[in-house]
Prior knowledge:
By secondary structure, this protein is an alpha+beta fold. The protein has two domains: 2-133, Immunoglobulin-like (Sandwich); 135-204. The chain has helices at residues 2-7, 10-24, 135-203, and strands spanning 34-39, 44-46, 56-61, 69-74, 81-83, 91-93, 99-101, 110-116, 123-131.
Amino acid sequence: MYFLAYGFDWTMQVFLLASLFSHLSGFTCLTSPNQVTAETGQSIVLPVNIRHSSSVFIWYRNYENETNKIFEYDTNREVKRVAGQQYTGREDILPNISLKIRNVDINYTGHYIMVSNSSPRDCATIMVNIHERNLTKRVAEQVTLKEADQKKHLMETEVTNQKLVVDKENTSKTAQGKLEKLNTCLHKLDEELENIFENLEKVE
């Protein structure tokens, strides 16, 4: 194994070791691994290319065995998605069988394998590398979020103030309308009283 330690980068070492393990375990997914790199907190999609008709697709983490199964997707079952022991609650199988992982952290670094039950079967191997998010970038994002929250608060306050102004104006308009109606009624009442007095004077 000397050539593994010194002749290849670590991702290829993992791939070769996983391939050897898979072969000894009765599995033979020996495709060259694709690379997916992300920062902690991001979501990633592990793409696959399905070329043959199949009803069962299985995703594994690091090794192709039952203990390392993430998901089994069976199109013939009523409940198509069945979680395995490596399922963490952040994984999901997309309609094209690609694997989506949300909010990744360092623990999601590793070797991912997808296999189908078709003959010949489809399989894919993907190396995932997760890096800690840059501290400066995280601070900048936190500042941006804080500023956004402050702007949102100011906007909400302004909206509330505008509503109060509108309500006050509406209230004023309503009161003004009622006052105008009252003044009209009083004017009519004055006219009626004047007519009554005039009639009384004529009677006298």
